Amino acid sequence: MSVLPGKALILVENLSVPFDRRVWQECQTLSGAGWEVHVICPQGTKRDTEAEVTIDGVHILRYPLKAATGGPAGYVQEYGSALWHTLRLARKVGRGGKIDVVHACNPPDMLFLVASYLKRQGAKFIFDQHDLCPELYLSRFDRGEDFLYRAVCALERRTYKTADIVIATNESYKDVAVKRGGKSPDDVFVVRSAPVVERFHQVPVEPELKKGKPHLLAYLGVMGPQDGVDYALRALASLRDEVGRTDWHAVFIGAGDAFDAMVALSKELELDDQVEFTGRIPDADLLRYLSAADVCLSPDPLNPLNDVSTMNKIMEYMAMSRPIVSFELREARVSAGEAALYAPANDEPEFAKLIAHLLDSPEQRAGMGELGRARVAGPLSWENSQKALLAAYAAAVR
């Protein structure tokens, strides 16, 4: 669907751009459709460090931001600083001409404050809901439905109320926007996170990446408290101790709040001779590791957030034609289908047994990989998401 081109301002707080692949794909789609695209986001630490840059026609303004440490109080400080910088830079963008659409990506559910300011100047507000923040709070902090949880719920309600259009990452999130957020189904568009399959391609397998073992296991993604890296490590310990398999090397690719704790847990479980943590790596190295991987791990445990969230790691594993072991989660099954095997929720010994089964089943691994690649190249493709994104913009400015 074509849209009347205008000026779009995209707000991001939790990742830099273009490192945030979903946001960058949205930027490129909008720019390609004729929109003048501006982005406000934090600066990265090792990449995306320039305060202002234009890349492929997309104007990016970045601000310094110290990531939260500790409990909820740290996030209040982080988000307060981010809001101040975002409003400051939004005013700068606005001085260059009227903003037609302000497109805010959560978390946090506080960017509606900046959107409200721009709406008073004639902008339409698209809320791009990457996470369900109430469920994120429950899953991350294990504090129950306390005062801060109720505050998070109130911020989500205000965001929904302020938004003209909501973008959801899957049908589960759309259902929340309609039932909990009170939005009309016609004003909620599902724009699934999907890799551009051309970016993910096989490269020659490098046996040395397996560190002398027959098999390589791979994890790719963020390492936060809710991402299940600890479940994966305990499953690997079970694979070694209970299943009796030591014919594997495992690589964990990515970073996050829990990175240091996961390295320490690996040592505590005496896995450090078989488990490697790379941190964030360039795309070229990512392709090397995933091309060599025999089985990919999606150990996100069952919790209120993970059950209804689309995991980017699953989509990227499928783009690389890799078989997956996951816990039984509603949206994991929607994404992966038969490209994954599913252990009962949070059952680490069963997760380990499924890894062992796939290591012994090369034909099944190949078939699962082909099914996954077909899903991300077909019904779950970014091409379909692009159409939904442009339809959301057309609805906002109609």
From TrEMBL:
InterPro entries: Glyco_trans_4-like_N, Glycosyltransferase_grp1. Keywords: Glycosyltransferase, Transferase. GO terms for molecular function: hexosyltransferase activity. Pfam families: Glyco_trans_1_4 (PF13692), Glyco_trans_4_4 (PF13579). Gene3D superfamilies: Glycogen Phosphorylase B. Transmembrane segments: none annotated. Residues 21-183 form the Glycosyltransferase subfamily 4-like N-terminal domain. This is Glycosyl transferase family protein. It comes from Amycolatopsis decaplanina DSM 44594.
